[in-house]
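[Q] Does anyone have a clean C-alpha cell version of this?
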Amino acid sequence: MVIAPEKISSGTSVLFIVATPIGNLEDITVRAINTLKSVNLIACEDTRTSRILLNRYDISTPLMSLHRFNENRKIQTIVERLETGQSVALISDAGTPNISDPGYRLVRSVMEAGFRVVPIPGPSSVVAALSVSGIDGSSFVFLGFSPKKASALNDFFGHISHEEKTIVFLETAHRIVKTMDVARKAIPSRRMVLCRELTKKFEEILCGNPESLYDKLDQRENIKGEFVVVIEPDGHRPAVDQDGVIEELIQEGLSGKNLAAEAHRRFGISRTLAYNKFLSRAIKCDSD
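[A] Here you go.
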C-alpha cells in the first residue's frame, strides 16, 4: 500500500477514531470532546444513542449512522468527504471503536485512499475489566462475543480450557447463565471474574469459579446489562489433589453434601465430583 505524502501532511482530511464512555458520561476525555466539536462529521452506530452524549457536552456536529448493515455503502461517502478536505470522527455506541464493533473496513479503506487515521484513546470495557479482575493482564486473548450455538459454545470452552493466556470475552445478559453452565463443566476450577454494567449505576463485579458463579446467577430472575468475562490462564494455579482434599475434609469431620459444598467453596472442585468421590471412598471402606 502506498500512502500519498501530501495527504499525510495535511491538517485536514483526517479520520479520527474516538473512544467514548462505556457508561458514565463523565469518563470522556477533553481531547475527545474537542475533536468531536471540530470535525465536519461524526460517524456512529446509532444516532439516538450518540446524541445523548453529544447533547451532554454541547456538541452540534452532524451525525451519520455507520453500522454493520450499511458500512460498505457509507465508506465511499466518508472517503469522498476526506477528498474535499473535511475531517471525520468515528465513534461506537460505547467505548473504543472497532473492538467488537463495525469500523475496521472503514479504517482500512481510508488508509488505502492515502488519508491519516488518528486514534483518540479512552474508555474500553475490556481494559476496565482486566484492571479490576485480579488476574494477570500482561498477556491476554480477547475473543469478542461467545458463540450462540450450543455446539460452538462447547468448542469455545474446549479451546479456553487449554489456553495459556488470560482470556477475555463478552456476553449478553440473557445468555450468561447458559454460558456459565457450560463453563462449570469445561473449566470447573478456573478463577473467573464477571463484570456487569461497568461504570454505570448498577455496576457489579463477581468473582469465583464457574460453578459458584452459575449458582449466583441462576437464582436471579431478571439479569440486565452486558458482561465482560475474564478467565485466568490454564495452569495459573497448582492442580488440586482431589483425593487428598476429600481425605482432608473427612478428617475434619465432614461428609456427604456438606463435604461436597466445602470442597467446592475452598478448592473449586465440582460438588458432584466431590460427592461421588466421597461415596466411592465410603463404599471402599465398607467393603474393606
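[Q] Thanks! Anything notable?
[A] Confidence is low (pLDDT under 50) at residues 1-10.
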